[in-house]
Amino acid sequence: MxxxxxxxxxxxxxxxxxIHFPTGLTGILGxxxxxxxxxxxxxxxxxxxxxxxxxxxxxxxxxWRFAPGKSVAVAELTFAFNNQTFTVKRSQSSSKSMAELRQxxxxxxxxxxxxxESLSKLLGMTHQEFFNSYFTGQKDLNFLGAIEGATDRxxxxxxxxxxxxxxxxxxxxxxxxxxxxxxxxKERQKLLLEGSLGNLEAIQTELVEQxxxxxxxxxxxxxxxxxxxxxxxxxxTLTPQLESLDLKRDTHTKLGTxxxxxxxxxxxxxxxxxxxxxxxxxxxxxxxxxxILRLEVANYDELLAQYSEQDKLRQAAIxxxxxxxRRSKLQVEIAELEQQLEQLxxxxxxxxxxxxxxxxxxxxxxxxxxxxxxxxxxxxxxxxDLKAKIKSEQQDLKKLETQKNTITAAGxxxxxxxxxRPLEAEFDNVIGNFSAQLTHLHGHIQAWQAELAAxxxxxxxxxxxxxxxxxxxxxxxxxxxxQTEIAADQTKQQLWQKQCTAKQTxxxxxxxxxxxxxxxxxxxxxxxxxxQLQILKPKREEYLRSADAPQRLSQAEQQLQDKxxxxxxxxxxxxxxSQEIQQLEFSEEDYRNLKQAxxxxxxxxxxxxxxxxxxxxxxxxxxxxxxxIQKREAEYHLKQKEFQTAKAEHALLEExxxxxxxxxxxxxxxIRPQLAESASEFLKQLTDGRYDALEIDAKYNVVVLDxxxxxxxxxxxxxxxxxxxxxxxxxxxxxxxxxxxxxxxILDEVFGSLDDGRRDKVLELLHGLERxxxxxxxxxxxxxxxxxxxxxxxxxxxxKEQCSFIK
Length: 807
Fold this sequence. Notes:
- This protein is an alpha/beta fold.
- Among the domains are: 189 residues, P-loop containing nucleotide triphosphate hydrolases (Rossmann fold); 71 residues, no CATH class; 123 residues.
- It contains 19 helices and 15 strands.
- The strands form three sheets. Strands 2-1-4-5-6-7 form a six-stranded antiparallel β-sheet. Strands 8-12-13-3-14-15 form a six-stranded mixed β-sheet. Strands 9-10-11 form a three-stranded antiparallel β-sheet.
- Strand 12, helix 19 and strand 13 form a beta-alpha-beta unit.
- It is elongated, with a radius of gyration of 56 Å.
- The mean pLDDT is 82.
- It holds the Pfam family AAA_23.
């Protein structure tokens, strides 16, 4: 991810703030409370909205507290991701959230839900993973120190690396679709099967009893069979006669049926012979037409091959025109980009010159503000001194008037307020003294009030300085706006240069592709071949359709011959059947008389058979009961087998659950060596090779290796460096597992506990890692390191406007 710009409106203390994020090491400077960390909060809110843990406090607190009624907080973030530019804009009123996501100028989502889903799919990270990957704060440096116990530390890092997903697959006994849910269900099935097995000994006892009853009933069935056999013997004397007549009757019926079928077949053969004669005539005509078409389409395949070759050349010619058009268009676009780049001129020089003027005007403004503060303080102190004198004299005046009135009321007999003796002759002198003092005080008060009125308005010199201050602020604001515009031009210049290079590469690819295209297309020949094929194609299709006409003619002649022979055979069969029916001499009346005699014998047989059936039913009932018992015995053995299978599957699921646990433990055990390896690379760069490696023991305590020797005790500053290396390593591991390039790093107040030397080392490390971290943002209130940044963004808080602004 690469941040491009951020626009805030009525967001927290940012009334109207516009920030452009350059590439490289950038410092975001400002005093505490100037709104630096709010920038990070706004970035996260723009990407993840009102999800829990993204913004501080309630959503109402997002809106600047001095904003007019019904105002909304707005955050609009533009960023690059996977070589594409996206802009997400969110706004929050007191009751409604709105969001929009654009890719370039195309809107791809315009509702809060759709934007959240699109960004989650695009970034492939939750907001917790996003913070853990890209952000590092001072309070997060010693993130392991705040966690007690090796197990909790290991679990914390595993959760950051999303290893808890293995636990989710194992699941819980009440979560369907997980291993432990299946384990619980298999345990329940095993217990149910074990409880439903029954008593095998009781089943076998009942089986013996039913076998005994079956033997007794079988004896009764033998008696019934004997009686039935006697009745059968009585009927058997008549049965042979009936069988003989049945046979002769069946033969008579069969021959009559065959005669009818043969006559019907003869009629059908006559119709088929007539149809085949007509078909033979039609096929003979088709064969003659097929031979004519063969001569007409003899060169069709040769013409088709020539047409196919010309068609390939035609397609190549069309593609050539398309590629040439695309190449010409790219050349025009490159010319336009080069013209735009030429119009921009030397943007870097303009940027530097404008920055120099801004610095000069800022220095002049600081000097004027200091002078205004000094004069304002002197003016206010003079006013305060005069007001204090007037107040003090007024209090004395009131006190003297009270004393004078008290003495006047007491008269000559009253007591002196000082010595408490009667005034008598001193009364007039005392009253005179009071009057003189009152006159003196009145004079002082009037003189000081006149002096206070004279300085009620600010001095002219102070007003002139304030006017100069306002002019400088306005000029500085215009300069800063110009700086933003020049920075935007610089971004455009870089983008246009990349586009120009890409289009030149495309032109080279198109030129190579054009060179590979075949040539030689003859439009006149192509048109002639097309017309010839168009004329011959219907004849060719008709020729192919009639290709089997000779074969079909031969088949029709053979079928006609076969049908004629079959016609002769059926006629002979009809004559033979008629003669055989006459020779049979069958009488239907003799057949009916014999049937009546057998019916009487059959009635006697039926009575014997009923007795037999009763005996058979008794045997069948006992056999059914016996079969049911045998079935229960078989079901017992089947359930016993199912129980053993369920028991084995339960053991398999237990082993699978154990294997998942061991796999999670294996992954967890790999955290420490991988984390130590990544952190060691950062530590080696940060300490100039003094410490070339670090280890993490089983309790997640960090041990630094100094020349191969273990150094468990290090200074506080070194400890912060080690913790910073660990935090960078974890961010790198998380980002690698998310499948995203680790191009952005944001450090929030991480220099607080480091001395100047350590801070310089950290900054050197970050400069050395610019290839790994394309964009590094450092938020700090330490002004002394501003020269170490490639770029700076300064934030200040205006107490009069009660809002933050970019200085």
